[in-house]
Amino acid sequence: MKYALLIYTETSGEEYHQITTGLRQPGAAQGAWTDYTRAAREAGVLAGAEQLAHSETATTMRYTDGPPLITDGPYLETKEHLLGFYLVDVDDLDAALDWARQMPVHPGQMVEVRAVLSGMPWQQALTE
Amino acid sequence: MAAGPDRVTGIEHAFREEWGAVVATLARRLGDLQAAEDATAEAFAAASVAWARDGVPPNPGGWLTVTAWRKAVDTYRATGRSTAVNPTILNEVTEKPEETVMPEPLGDDRLGLAFACCHPALAVEARVALTLRFVAGLTTRDIAAAFVVPEATLAQRLVRAKRKIRETGIRFTVPSSPAHLAERLSSVRMVVYLVFNEGFAASAGAALVRDDLCDEAIWLGRLLRSLLPADPETAGLLALMLLHSSRRAARLAPDGRPVPLAEQDRALWNRMLIEEGSRVLDDALKLHSPGPFQLQAAIVALHASAGSYESTDWPQIALLYRALARLDPSPVVEVNRAVAVGMADGPLAGLAVLAPVLASGALSEYAPLHAAHGFLLDKAGDSERARGAWGRAAETSGNSALRDELLRRHEID
Description:
The structure holds 2 protein chains of 2 kinds.
Chain A: E1 2-9, H1 13-24, H2 32-42, E2 46-51, E3 59-62, E4 69-72, E5 81-89, H3 93-101, E6 110-115
Antiparallel strand pairs in A: 1-5, 1-6, 2-5, 3-4
Chain B: H1 10-30, H2 33-54, H3 60-79, H4 87-95, H5 109-117, H6 124-135, H7 140-146, H8 151-168, H9 178-200, H10 207-227, H11 232-245, H12 271-285, H13 292-305, H14 314-327, H15 331-345, H16 347-360, H17 367-379, H18 383-396, H19 400-409
């Protein structure tokens, strides 16, 4: 069964920009997230992982009767933004919670664990 | 929970136990509580016809499990319902339906079911409802009546919880790692004790219904202990509930007024429950792994064995509260410890324990804090300040019978 581990943080757009820029500098230290990702891959449970640009940079399309309306900013203005996610393929919720528990998150951050539905007709198109 | 003090009869529980065992086996195999419940209901309906016609089979439980399993298989074939669960089951069902084997009941199916119903990923109220419905086998109507909520609300709560279990992959198994087992088991115990306290603390509803909740919790405690005989805290929980229960008849005066421990007629305490509770506690303590439930049970056991309030072994009780505070620090424990210290070493010593709790303001709306304060001030001879504390106790009490009694005793208008 697949689970999305969604990582939320309160970091502001400016802070987030500085942190991510720093991490991309040549010679930046490999961090705990690298170890975590490697461990998940070596355990054979990693089905995907992405880190998102700050929600401040989001573009939202609003669908109405006419053509979609393009607006600057996220759909919901919240203090927390979705920083990224891991997709793990494990046996059950307890195993997914274990992978969430091992994440090197900071105090104040949150990880939401969501099961992924299977058997949806559209999913056949993924592997055609 | 229907009317009548003898409602929880042996026959009814035997029936519910059979029902719970069948649901547990089916749930483990199907990974789906709703499907397990539906199939079990069909099997019981079939039994009422077949057994009336052919007589009760030699192994009624086995008959019901096999029949429920066949009904579930039929449903899967008929609806092609796909689940996110055990693929071997689906293969069995879809590929060789004629050879569908009977599910092998496991000794711990019921334990696995309890662990799923009490999973920390579920809201506490959902855990309580699921446990009473599927482990204790109560009907939705009974549970709704016990918790004084509309039946539709409770049914909806159960539907949502069952869906979450199925869709998020909560398994009906006992966790294999010791760390997980400890964490999950503590949630199971917590749910059972919550049911007991809902009955014992009489916060809402009719007294009879509350008594029934205590009985259900004790029944669950016995079941848990039979499934986990080597777990000291599970035994401690059962002992605590039995020992608390022994005082049930003495806690209320004939006119419904609450009677404080100091004034209870100890002849009304149930000796059988005290004996059983003490025995269960002794067995737990022999395992040399004390925990909060064992310590609380030990405290209640000391009360139960005392001839009077004054001759109670207060120094020992104060020590037990100290040990409890170390394991599970909470201002509520400190309030109880203050009273014990006050009885053991005098009211000033008790007031000294209470002072930091009063100063922190953490429990300013907690009636027992103010009652303890009033009690210790009275003993110290400071009746004026005591009256103020008793007034706060009355103000903050959520229970109207208790509030009236406090006002009457302390002549507060």
